[in-house]
Specification:
The chain has 2 helices and 6 strands. With 136 residues, it is α+β, with helices and mostly antiparallel strands.
């Protein structure tokens, strides 16, 4: 039996383009764990200082690099934890994330948590993720 990932939104619950309510995984799969990503580029520069939307765009690029290195794609994401510096407006980050996911990708489960801050303080957001790649 090939591996399978199913995104479920019970009819009794809210359907939101930003997240899925339940995801099941069955059969043979490869699980990919992506450590907390920040807005650092390949040259160790912090991208988007003071701009949570620009930082989120760089984080999504970093997640793409991690997924590709592991033989996965964004549609394989099943869960991500989003950490946001306290006091930040989430809207620009949400908009950047939704552009990256686009409507053709089923959204992962998500947890959004405000934290008191990051080290260094230039970071406004960090995202860790889990992906599941079905095996044939």
């Amino acid at each position: 039996m090939p591996g399978r990932v199913e995104h479920i939104n019970p009819s009794e619950m809210t359907v939101n383009p930003a997240f899925t309510q339940v995801i099941t995984v069955t059969g043979p799969v490869k699980t990919v764990y992506i450590g907390a990503q920040t807005s650092v580029d390949g040259n160790r520069n912090i991208v988007g200082k003071g701009d949570i939307g620009a930082q989120t765009e760089q984080i999504c690029r970093n997640i793409d690099f991690c997924l590709e290195a592991a033989g996965a794609r964004k549609e394989h994401l099943i869960s991500w934890n989003i950490y946001v510096a306290e006091g930040q407006d989430m809207r620009p980050a949400f908009e950047a994330g939704m552009r990256w996911l686009d409507r053709s990708t089923p959204p992962p489960l998500n947890n959004v948590m405000y934290v008191s801050g990051f080290l260094p303080a230039d970071f406004l957001i960090s995202i860790e993720a889990i992906a599941v790649v079905p095996l044939d």
